[in-house]
Amino acid sequence: MNLERLVQVDRRIVYLLIALGTLIPILKPIGFAVSTTPPVENFFAKVESLGGDDAVLVSFDYGPTTAPECDPMAEAVLRHCFTRGIKVVVVALFPLGGVTMAGEALEKIVPQYPDLVEGEDYVFLGYKDGAQATMKQMGVAFSGVFPSDQEGTPLDELPLMTQVLNYANIALVVSIATNVIGEWWANLVNAQFGTPVAVGCTAVSAPKYYAFLDSGQMLGLLGGLKGASEYEQLLIDRYPALEPIYSKAGEYNAMKGMDAQTVDHAIIMLFILYGNGVYFLIRRREKREARLEQ
Amino acid sequence: MSELLGVWLGAFLTLCIFSFLYKDNPFFRFAESLFAGVSLGYYIGIVSTNTLVPNMIRPLTADFSGNAHLLIPLLLGLNLYTRYIPRIAWMARLSLAVYIAYYVGIFMVQKLQGEVVPQVGKTILHPIGGNFTPVDNLIMMVGVLSVLIYFYFSIEHKRAVGVVSRVGIWFLMLGFGAAFGYTVMGRISLLIGRMNYLFIDVVQITSQYL
Amino acid sequence: MFWKLRLPLMLTFIVGLVPIVTFFLTERVWGVAFVRDRVEQYMVIITGFALLLGVVNVVQGNIRKIERRKPGWPFAVSLLLGLFVMGAFGILSAARVGPFQSILTAPDGSDTPFYWMTRHLFNPLQAAMFSLLAFYVASAAFRAFRVRNVEATILLTAAFIVMLGRTPLGEYVFSWLPNGETFLPWVTEWIMAVPNAAAQRGIIIGAALGAAALSLRVILGIERSYLGIREK
Lengths: 294, 210, 232
Description:
The structure holds 3 protein chains of 3 kinds. Chain B has a domain at 126-210. Chain B has 6 helices and no strands. Chain B has helices spanning 2-18, 26-62, 71-79, 92-124, 134-150, 159-209. In chain B, helix 5 (134-150) packs across helix 6. Chain C has a domain at 145-232. The two termini of chain C are 16 Å apart. The interface between A and B is large, with 61 and 51 residues.
């Protein structure tokens, strides 16, 4: 038997299986249970410890490229804050889509809380260039870089922003991030201003951020879709009234996404096992042939 | 109706991109070039609406004498574009120097005070206590030191140094393996989002109009 | 020589020191807060201009491609069309001309043209382009992941545990043991929090020291390549 041919599977077969592994659980949800981990529990507990007198800065540091992971995180955190009556300041520092992601999230979440008053309960300051310069200046005065909110209302006309002047008035920074901006909140803002930082990041960044988690520069971490699904689960467990939002048919969320994620992981692992099994047989045959030649 | 048109346009463009999985073709090339163009157009819109107008143009037009100092970043910013005029291209160096220097300076502090000090501190100052058991703390310390020694190329990796750097490689492999697992997770999530768009969002919005 | 070399290097030195000096000095020192705030506010604006630098390059290159009818020139047309239409809607929104009062929703709640293009062109194109990586990562894992030596085995084992442990599958694998459903998730979390964090920390410290050294070289004028100056 030609063992080499066994591993030369047409890449399009792999693609097809991955596509089916993603599509079938989306059309026919499995509903796997979600278990939680300490980095997510700590994040949740911190938001849970805050109340109506506190303000949280939520920074949209991601774009459409990682929206399937980051959107559920942002939505869950916003829901958590609004449910608890925490004041929210929304900014965006990621140039390629941050502000429109934030706009879409607010359009979706705010109508679910009819009592919310823009400018009093939350503000949307929009996007700003400058990255670290913006982050540093917000520590001095939000008005230093955000003269107005996204729609052009001057900051001094927004009641919330007359109380929230800089990081000293922010109880927690939440960055939902797709690249280095997430870690800048830890190694710049937390390091220089001492503001507590929690990050929800794309799975690709999560392994690195465990170092910041251990050093205390991040107090919590949502790593990829799994982290987002854990936060959603904690939210539903604590606030059962939110459950219908998450079980609504046709509404995407991380818990539903985890079904397809699990199936695809299984497919990839089976492929790796298969590839290594054949590789093992090839190695054994080569060793046997080498022995025979000797 | 614009919503319906929009989701179908989005679905068509998504399929154009996915067609590359079979092989390169004009539909993919079209979507790819549109991707680049629209992304740059997005930059133009966002930068002008969210930064240049509120932080520079509006203050200057509202109260020129009070905000005349904003002419400094305006001139420095415009000067960046002299690089496209060969005769005076050197002038862009002045703005580039200011721009690069600031971020380099901030980066230096950020890296030393925000990364080296807390990361080294957490490794060596609390061998007992913290979130982990003493054994975990010991593993952490061994891991960090061995990885650093692996990256230290000023001495030959022989004898004891060679052994320690080998341990460093093992730690790195564990880290890279974990990172690979997470990368798979991240990439699959992106596909889940697209599939959800094609087979749930598009269908739902279309059915609203039928 | 002064204008083309010494002045840029002097500017680099002076401006590079601003974030360092203002980090160490308190606000009470005369002028520190003023200089820091002004420079930070200016940098926000200059970064805006810098971000748009690439647009000029792309426009120049693609116009040339169309003029010379180079292969694939019609795609250059679609690129420029996307760029100019989206960019124009953005600029009109910035100027708040007529119905273009925002880059998000219009006062009547409908999408502005910029937002419509964002939702139905920019978002799907960005997301679809990156979602291709899902297929490639699966194919690459199948082709390249082989247990060839100790290092590759460690890598593969860690990847396998994480891929299993970060999904509900990880809970089922050892569920036949007492409390077995928590075992693999616990191992996964331990790998992430201890050996992975140790490796990441080593990389972070090493890379940070390297970046700080490079920063110092730039500020001191030793490293000049960013100005387009090649060392002889």
